[in-house]
């Protein structure tokens, strides 16, 4: 994986679109693949052994702030899923169904 400002900006646009949509538009599989896969690996890559120029550092920091905003959006949205959580507790295999 190679670092590029363009790639960083593209990933930030994806995150900002998700935040703007209140994390709507992804089914369970897509959300898992993105958050636990692609985004996790990309953030790990950014924290890895990359050396950034003075011009790149603010871009990386802004992207990481965007990741934190996405986490906050998820936590806010999580509080609205109480009904689904209660149903999942009653039916243990309900997670296998994607509405």
Describe this structure in words.
With 99 residues, the protein is mostly helical. It has 4 helices and no strands. It has helices spanning 5-20, 28-47, 56-78, 82-90. Helix 1 (5-20) runs parallel beside helix 3 (56-78). It starts with a helix and ends in a 9-residue tail after the last helix. The mean pLDDT is 89.
Could you give the topology of this structure?
Layout (H helix, E strand, L loop, with lengths): L4 H16 L7 H20 L8 H23 L3 H9 L9
Question: Order of SSEs, N→C?
Answer: HHHH
Count the DSSP helices: 4
Give the total of beta strands: 0
> Biggest β-sheet: count, sense, barrel?
none
**Separation, N- and C-terminal Cα atoms:** 35 Å
Question: What proportion of the residues is helical, as a percent range?
Answer: 55-70%
Beta content: under 5%
Radius of gyration of CA atoms, rounded to a whole number: 16 Å
Secondary-structure content class? mainly alpha
Task: Round the mean pLDDT to the nearest integer and report it.
Answer: 89
- Which spans of ≥5 residues are poorly predicted at pLDDT below 50? none
Q: What is the global morphology?
A: elongated
